[in-house]
Amino acid sequence: MASAPRIARAIPALEAIAQFSSDVVVGLSQPGQKELPSKYLYDEVGSALFDVICVLPEYGLSRAGMRLLERHAADIVERMPGPVVVAELGSGSGQKTRWLLEALARRQRVNYYPIDISSSALFRCQLELSHIDLVSIVGFESAYLDGLREVAARRREGEQLLVLFLGSTIGNFDRPAGDQFLREVRSTLCEGDALLLATDLEKPVPALTLAYDDSAGVTAAFNKNLLARINRELDGDFDLTKFDHVARYDESERRVEMHLRSKVWQRITIRKAGFRFYLREGETIWTESSHKYDPQEVIQMGERAGYRCAGQWIDGEWPFAQTLFFAG
Ligand SMILES: C[S@@+](CC[C@H](N)C(=O)[O-])C[C@H]1O[C@@H](n2cnc3c(N)ncnc32)[C@H](O)[C@@H]1O
Q: Relative to the CA of 95, which ligand 1 atom is closest?
């Protein structure tokens, strides 16, 4: 029987709001390009909108990642012979993870630890996966590495840790920060532990930009919700009708950037942060980057961070890779 879902730890609300306020002020005080950290896109509304994005026809990433896991989950878990404990970084609602958990549960009891800063995403994840027999779930409402360190501290002698980083979320880091993040993950692992890393691959620019600017306007709503979140949580006065959602491809950085472009000159006040700032007509706030990769580049990223590649699977319909690394 599946066990009841649990959340092991929540970020204290006051601490979280103080950090949000400070990050917003720092990002919007930049002398050049103003920016907001993409992790704040995921409150309850943002996480629900992201789930809708995943089923949009334009957002091929999600279906590609899912197809690969549906086809290759058995092969992936066979490469890890020992008893395996699973941690997932930024699990979201965990839909892609089902195939891996089911494949593992055919041979062992599985402890699965989703880690996400969005409590509503964790809640959905637990609803989605808690009925799989022989899988017990403890969610960690925390930042990636804090959660991973807690999971690593819980594993028992002889257990192998499989870390999942799906959905091409690594692409939210710029390339040097992505390398550094993989090194930090590696430093919490023991030899023989594994990392399954999903990465969206380079493809024609029109398909890429449409994936982040769909015709139904869901991604636009997801992006603008960040301003609505500031209004709700920090008592801001952003008028969402005065912003356009923009998705553009930067050829030299090989990434899609999401911005919010001010339609007019405007003054914005964020009362709880004690902060006021101005936006010129046409000026943008940069909210997210999604870097795109070459398959070989992904293997090299892992090798630079102290892993060896144990397999790579690429989707034929929407170029996208799942790459399995061993720590070693
Ligand atoms: C692009 S979504 C991917 C969700 C899921 N893995 C998938 O493939 O559909 C990124 C997820 O990571 C979470 N997240 C973003 N930044 C985070 C951070 N610094 N620490 C923990 N979770 C984070 C978000 O709340 C969101 O659920």
A: 9
181-190 pLDDT, tens digit per residue, is 999 999 999 9
Residue with tokens 């700032």: 277
The answer to whether residues 74 and 207 touch, using CB atoms and an 8 Å cutoff, is no
Question: What is d(CA 92, CA 165) in angstroms, rounded to the nearest whole number?
Answer: 11
Instruction: Using the predicted structure, report yes or no on whether residue 72 has a pLDDT greater than 80.
Output: yes
pLDDT reported for residue 3? 47
> What percentage of the chain's residues is helix, strand, coil (to nearest 5)?
45, 30, 30
Rg (CA), the chain: 20
Strands (E), the chain: 6-9, 34-35, 84-89, 110-116, 135-141, 160-165, 194-200, 243-250, 255-262, 266-270, 275-279, 284-291, 307-314, 320-327
pLDDT in tens, 164-179: 999 999 999 999 999 9
Please report how the helices 98-105 and 119-129 are oriented relative to each other, as an axis angle in degrees rounded to 10.
Answer: 40
Evaluate whether 277 touches 236 at the Cβ level (below 8 Å). no
Sign of CA dihedral 140, 290, 210, 313: negative
Q: Measure CA 92 to chain center.
A: 7
Q: 110 CB less than 6 Å from ligand 1?
A: no
Query: 195: Cβ below 6 Å to ligand 1?
Result: no
Nearest CA owner, ligand 1 atom 10: 90
98, pLDDT greater than 90:
yes
Q: Residue 248: name the closest of 221, 201, 281, 211 by CA.
A: 211
Q: Which residues pair with 148 in a beta bridge?
A: none
